[in-house]
Amino acid sequence: MLVKVLMVVVLLSGAAFSIEAQTPKTSAVRYACPMHPEVTSSRPGRCRKCKMTLTKVTPAPPRDPNAITSMRISDFPIQDQNGKSLKFYSDLVKGKVVAINFVFTTCTTTCPSLTATFRKVQQQLVEHKFDAQLISISVDPTTDTPERLHAFAEKYKAEPGWTFVTGNSSDIELLLKELGVYVANKNDHTPMVLIGNDKAGYWTRAYGLSSPDALVKSLTEASNRPGRGSGF
Amino acid sequence: MSHKKAQNWFWLVVLICVAPAVVAAQDSLAQQQSRGRQIYVQGTSRSGKEILAYVGDASLEVPGSTLPCAGCHGLDGHGKPEGGVNPSNLTWEFLTKPYGVKHESGRQHPPYTERGLELAITRGLDPAGSKLLAAMPRYVMSREDLNDLVTYLQLLGKERDPGVTDNKIVIGTLVETSGILADWGKTILTVTNAVFDEVNSQGGVYGRRLELNVIECSAETRAAARAKLESVLKDQQVFAMANAMIAGTEKEVVPILIQNQTPLIGPFSLYPQTGFPLNRQVFYLLPGLDDQAKSLAKFIAEKPEFKKSNIAMIAPGIAVFTNVIDAVRAKKDAIVIRYESGRFDVTDAIKQSRQAGVDVVVFMGSGDDALAFMREAEKLNWFPAMLVPGGAIGVSVFDAPIGFDRKVFFSFATTPEDHTAEGRNEFRAFQAKYKLPPALITAQISAYVGAKMLIEALKRAGKDVSREKLIQVLEELHQYPTGLTQPITYGPNRRIGATGAYIVTIDLKEKQFVPVSGWVESN
After folding, report:
1. B-chain residues near A211 (CB < 8 A)
2. Which chain B residues contact residue A213 at CB under 8 A?
3. A112 has a chain B CB within 8 A of its CB
4. Under an 8 A CB cutoff, do B491 and A143 touch?
């Protein structure tokens, strides 16, 4: 699996950036005193204050400023573009690598770009046999009936693996609140994409109008995150 | 003197020679603008040449039709802020302010020129050479298309929709003024004219008089009337339509309206076309037979004596009834019996219904067919509930066998129960002022409400009225009280103002209608 993912990464954007996530070169190995953490050295030795042997410090991975540290997604009842009733978490997110954007079918400003970007992302995923779930949640569920979403999905040539989500307006409102993207006026919806790896419990945000390549790269990084064990 | 004469001659010659050239130039300017408008609004070229849009760092290529200019900058060019993106004002006055433009972001640049606009469209640069907002795509299109677009941009925001001038708005209607529906057609025309006259006598709508452009026809000349409608709309004579009689010709008339993007308010029809995808331009006031049939089925299902409520739907094989049948079957299973008009096989219909254990019949045939059915059923001592959407079998119902007493149910889209005191007084005063006869009250009320709704929508759409704004304000109407019908609600997915029906039963002993329900919502 890892090999496959790495291959995808290499294929997609050359070897330059991809290995970094596995073996960080940027932060060199450091040694520190167990009693005086401010005493550090780039070589093994003794503490200049207490003469204790310095121990090797594994540097913390660089913090992703967009990472979301606590994410809880409930099983809201939703409907897809085919009018099929689904449970949001179990059917679309559980155990998967996902990208979620937020659109409505009567929006003519950012949504066409957001959706066309997802279309390109899906093409690249299919091309590289990279299994990730794309989700477009309607921020206007009252207007966006499954029929409307179906027509919208067809217009952008969405293939299986890309689910358009609508439902009862109060359920969708709660779902959007959980995902941290709820806005009172649908026209204020942010052009943002949530990218996550449910198994790893890893979530991050990306700007929705980023290039498809950048989103695929984020998805790859998400899928490279080590799992937190099965069953979660 | 001779000098002056020569000068006159000179000007005459100039006029003769130059005038045709000026006319030709104007004509081609108008054509250029119209081609440019298509690019602006739809992102497609009339020449059929490809238009492509590149988004972000140009890695995303989409057809121009996915991201037409109007999507972000609006039909009026003022820009539609959304999702943190604030598209610029594209009106020519704004772009060419002599002292340049300073944006909220701090970006500033000298005034645009035609060449400057081309650079903005194709390279994403403003006249100062700075990059435009990232959400603004770069477009690739042919030289001719770019010229057309830039020409149109100089007109953007200054044009008006068809049928609107400084002092009038032309509204079209289509009515049958001869043939069996002549009385209806004439009534609709009289009432609509009277409502317009009343609003005009009060100064019109934002100082514009309402003028009615009437297309008259009969059942025989419907095709010719449609051709006329098409040419009237093509000639840009009419802003919107109201109170048109399109019963039975909906499938032909509605596409003409859609194609010309002409809104229609209050069409007269029993078979509204409201399936998906929606006909965005057409706003019905009252429910059609499909909604009424659903209300009837819902009403009867709640009565204990029809608990089983095994339904048979009996209808002539005409296409219009298919919608009604589908509407009911979407809610509840029913057997369907269709027959050729005028060749109703009563025995067979009864046999099929009895075999299926039917106790409720939705009947859409003629009055004679209904009577034949009920008389035959009486012989078998079988008295199912008879549901008649729209009460279409008429007064012949009073000849039904007595066993069907209070077992026949009619639905009505509106009854006097809907009239508020205010609505009734207003309408009576209107009837008196325009000397309307006390006949065809339903037609009078429908036409009155249709015309009033149009005027209300025009007022809400504001002085800078456009078809798009008209549709927008109508979609925002929620429980709007007309005083004479159920309140009217529209929405992005809703084109029937009131969905449901009143239900009355027939007392065969007293020979009268007896209301048995209030308003029953169909959904």
Report:
1. 56-57, 59-60
2. 59
3. yes
4. yes
B449 within 8 A of B485, measured Cβ to Cβ: yes
Q: Which residues of B403-434 are buried (b: 16+ CB within 10 A; e: fewer)?
A: ebeebbbbbbbbbeebbeeebeebbeebbeee
Contact list, A151 vs chain B (CB under 8 Å): 276-277
Residues of B in contact with A184 (CB under 8 A): none
Residue B144 lies in a domain: yes
Q: DSSP secondary structure string, B224-270?
A: HHHHHHHHHHHTT--SEEES-B-TTTHHHHHHHHHHTT--EES-B-S
What range defines the domain where residue B365 resides?
289-412+502-521
Please tell me whether residues B513 and B373 are part of one structural domain.
Answer: yes
Find out whether B51 and B101 touch, Cβ atoms under 8 Å: no
Q: What is the pLDDT of residues B369-411, one digit of tens each?
A: 999 999 999 999 999 999 999 988 988 899 999 999 999 999 9
Tell me how close the Cα of B492 comes to any Cα of chain A, in angstroms: 6
Q: Residue ranges per domain, chain A? A: 29-61, 77-224
B383 shares its domain with B509 = yes
Q: Is B25's pLDDT higher than 60?
A: no
Fold of A77-224: Glutaredoxin (3.40.30)
* Interchain proximity B84–A191, CB inside 8 Å: yes
CB contact under 8 A, A211 and B60: yes
- Give the ipTM of the model, two decimals please: 0.79
Same domain, residue pair B367 and B515: yes
Q: How far is B127 from chain A (nearest CA, A)?
A: 24
- Number of structural domains (chain B) is 3
- pTM given for the model: 0.81
